[in-house]
Write a structure and sequence with these properties.
The structure is a single chain. With about 400 residues, the protein is α/β, with parallel strands linked by helices. It contains eleven helices and seven strands. Strands 1, 2, 3, 4, 5, 6 and 7 form a seven-stranded mixed sheet that branches. The two termini are about 40 Å apart.
């Protein structure tokens, strides 16, 4: 699996991503059954140059705006939601350096990532407080464990977090995955997102240098820094939307080419059954609504990103609300399609070899990590009381 350097130089990022997506999709069902690390596919992403997508041109990147980056995340997520997930989180970790760290840190880490095709993994789970940090002269120690660490296996760099042992404050750092004391476990075996390696990481007296801490301005310390969770939510929105689009595509293919009409339908082809047509109409409305909301949210996010340190709380609140609305729409439309696709495809579509159930398993697994009911509550507080979502790592 390879995208040649010549092709990479002449093709647009979207064209490169489209070629990769076609290859990923061909093996997605088989790899879902296998689980584990998609090493060949991760290496293909390295070779493609797309790990540089969101890095500014001055640091050796492709300089894509977030709208373009999110479109490619959605495209890859449509082919294989696990790969869309780790690719999206890679760019989220890079953005974390920019949002929580200094300009010098971003310049150094962006440049090194671009030169060496580093893949970034996530060990920042603020709800898991088992990793603590203690002070040792000019450095800090991280010790403990983190769960739900997506993309850590086969990564070169990590965004890791710990809580200060004395103050309880959250510390975030960018460190090499291969550092002494960092133990990445191969213990992810969930029903969905099976190739995201979202298991645990253990920190055994890991030395973290002062210059590796992202403390200027620090986590969620300014309205601009508070864009980090908004970007995380927007990346997830596009992954969820990609899953819904993939389920729709598989259902459509099966209905048109494999399904048989129910014997009392009085039609020769399943595609002419009025009940099936009605359901496809509902699927389409759900997807089109989610797409429009996701694209609008991406445009608003780009506008907020462009403001940098001048971003105000109100502008940040506006984009957070737009992203939350899009996320709810993507989850609800996606779950409806992933569940009801079998109504329009028929009993034969449940054949185990097709693994069409992976769409529901993938979306259901990932969407549970941020309860939909609380996202709707945030939106409701705006709709009723005109209160923007309170900045947190999930809003």
């Amino acid at each position: 699996m390879h995208v040649s350097s010549a092709a990479s130089q002449s093709a647009s990022p979207f064209e490169i991503a489209r070629a990769l997506a076609a290859t990923f999709a061909a093996s997605a069902a088989e790899r879902d059954a296998r689980g584990g690390t998609p090493k060949a596919e991760r290496d293909a992403l390295r070779e493609s140059g797309l790990l540089r997508l969101s890095i500014p041109v001055e640091f050796g990147g492709l300089g894509a705006r977030w709208r373009e980056t999110l479109d490619i995340i959605r495209l890859l997520g449509r082919a294989d939601s696990s790969l869309g997930h780790v690719f999206g989180f890679h760019h989220l970790m890079l953005a974390t350096v920019r949002l929580f760290g200094s300009a010098a840190q971003a310049s150094t880490l962006y440049g090194q990532t671009a030169r060496h095709s580093w893949f970034w993994g996530n060990a920042l789970n603020p709800l898991d407080t088992r990793t603590v940090s203690t002070t040792h002269a000019e450095w800090r120690e991280f010790s403990g464990q983190k769960s739900f660490c997506s993309g850590t296996v086969d990564s070169e760099m990590l965004i890791a977090s710990a809580h200060d042992a004395q103050t309880g404050s959250l510390l975030v750092a960018a460190i090499p995955t291969g550092r002494s004391g960092v133990c990445v476990a191969h213990d992810w075996d969930n029903i969905g997102q099976r190739q995201t390696d979202s298991g645990s990481v253990t920190f055994q007296r890991v030395r973290v240098e002062r210059h590796e801490l992202l403390s200027d301005p620090g986590p969620l310390s300014t309205p601009f820094a508070c864009l980090r969770p908004v970007l995380a939510q927007l990346i997830l929105t596009n992954i969820y939307l990609g899953i819904g689009e993939s389920a729709f595509g598989d259902a459509r293919q099966y209905t048109l080419h494999e399904s048989r009409p129910w014997y009392v339908a009085n039609v020769e082809r399943a595609e002419d059954d009025p009940y099936i047509l009605g359901q496809y109409g509902e699927f389409w409305v759900g997807l089109e609504s989610a797409r429009a909301l996701a694209d609008r949210a991406a445009e608003r996010f780009d506008a907020a990103w462009d403001q940098g340190a001048t971003l105000g709380e109100t502008e940040r609140g506006e984009v957070a609300l737009a992203v939350a609305t899009a996320k709810v729409a993507a989850i609800e439309a996606g779950l409806a399609i992933c569940t009801r696709m079998f109504d329009v495809a028929g009993a034969r579509a449940t054949h185990g070899g097709l693994r069409l159930d992976r769409h529901w398993r993938n979306l259901r697994t990932h969407s549970l990590h941020d309860p939909l009911a609380y996202k709707l509550r945030e939106i409701g507080e705006w709709a009723l009381k005109q209160q923007y979502p309170t900045p947190s790592f999930y809003s």
